Amino acid sequence: MTGSDWRSDVLKFWFGLSFDDWWKGGPDLDHRIRERFLDLWSQKREFPASSFLDDPLTALAAVLLFDQFPRHMFRGHADQFATDHLALQVAREAVDRGFDEQLQTQVERGFLYMPFQHSENLADQKRSVQLFTALGDDFQLGFAREHHDVIARFGRFPHRNAMLGRAPRPDEVAAGEVVPW
């Protein structure tokens, strides 16, 4: 898995899954991803974002590896966010280079944009809404707007507080804010 075909392995696996697998997953899928990709994730996370910007498909595979796979491999633990910064760097540079426009499907572009939606930075959230609006996928745009609104209101995702060892702030407690992502 650590060879030159890592990109193909990631893309074939992820895009071979069903819509429900992407959004609902479950323990079996989490286990499959962990068994198949944990070593690759551990190896590739040591590289700078620039290592994944040779072409659109390499950037997309890296974003999946650093953004989507950890959410399955480490569900419920802080490690699921450990490579969000790397996924965001790759996604940001890929979009700036126009790689998103070179991807074949709307679904691929949507996954390339996902790190913006997962960021706790309001500027990234604004860009997420902009990208998903241009994509024309109303389903994904709805989630982008929801994520944006949480960051605009709280400056972070309160549902991550326990996993990240953060104390809830009074405004989060008062709002009863628990977001199920």
From TrEMBL:
It comes from the Bacteria. This is DUF924 domain-containing protein. It comes from Sphingomonas lutea. InterPro entries: DUF924, TPR-like_helical_dom_sf.
